[in-house]
Amino acid sequence: MIISKITGGLGNQMFQYAIAKSIATVRNDIFKLDTTAYETYKLHNGYRLNAFSLEVSLAKEDEIFRLRGFDNRIFNKLNFFKPKSYYLEKERTIYDDKVFSYKDIYLDGYWQNEAYFLDIRKSLLEDFKLNKMLSPKAEASLLNIKSSSGISVHVRRGDYLKHPEIGILSVDYYKRAIEYMKGKVENPQFFIFSNDIPWCKENFSFIKEVTYIEESESELEDLELMKSCHHNIVANSSFSWWGAWLNDYKEKIVIAPKQWMAINPKNYKWSPNSWIEISTMEA
């Protein structure tokens, strides 16, 4: 059995689901999710995978305990008093093929590397379809996107302003990314997604072919709209990452920040090799 700990916002949850399904597929085994973190985790919007068309089982308390043992932050980190099935991610974004060799495994980590699940991409594209209709306003935005050479531009601010270790991407990053797209895409139309649209309107006056997405009812609708664009300019966000990765346009161009985290002493790399990386962080 494979059990994956689900925690964090929507993007993180999608990574944690994807690796579990991938391992289960390779091993012809079952996988379940441990969502008990949301009994105390109050950030973002809680557990969100139930908004997709995927079918999944939630792990029972005894199953979680058998594979994870006691849930203690210190013991987890030091691996004290933990069953052999408990597996804490060793290094962020670094592919670790050992996770595929366990008969039973409890996955505790973020697993932000497409190598874990690239082989089941087709299946994940189906799984991560919304199970409800878009709102009328989001549907109107979708029609606008599909009738153009749409390029999503994601700007993450808000909560990131309180996390200097993550960092805010500079306006220069977006200027350079947009100029690159203009040189590659005929008649580009830029669609701005952000948790700070007023800031974007104030700082993105240099974009002439622009539509600000302001009336989506949730981040789920934003994700659906972002992945429907032909091309993507992503922020340093797992949510933004999935918006681009789920884009199934064959000739898509994805631009991502080279410096994903402001503090990244080990130079971890979040972007797939097929994406174009541009540097710059806001000072």
Using brief descriptors, characterize the structure shown.
283 residues, alpha/beta, Rossmann fold, 2 domains, 6-stranded parallel β-sheet, 5-stranded parallel β-sheet, globular
Determine the number of helices (DSSP H or I, runs of at least 4 residues): 9
**What's the average pLDDT?**
93
Domains, number? 2
Low-confidence stretches: none
Percent in strands: 15-25%
Question: Concise description?
Answer:
With 283 residues, the protein is an alpha/beta fold. The chain has helices at residues 10-27, 61-68, 73-78, 121-127, 136-146, 171-184, 197-203, 219-227, 238-245, and strands at 2-5, 31-34, 57-58, 86-88, 105-108, 149-155, 188-194, 210-212, 231-233, 254-257, 276-278.
Q: Would you kindly provide a written description of the structure presented here, covering whatever features stand out?
A:
Keywords: Glycosyltransferase, Transferase. The protein is of the alpha/beta class. It folds into two domains: 2-127; 136-278, 3-Layer(aba) Sandwich (Rossmann fold), CATH 3.40.50. The chain has helices spanning 10-27, 61-68, 73-78, 121-127, 136-146, 171-184, 197-203, 219-227, 238-245, and strands at residues 2-5, 31-34, 57-58, 86-88, 105-108, 149-155, 188-194, 210-212, 231-233, 254-257, 276-278. Strand 1 (2-5), helix 1 (10-27) and strand 2 (31-34) form a beta-alpha-beta unit. It is globular. It starts with a strand and ends in a 5-residue tail after the last strand. The mean pLDDT is 93.
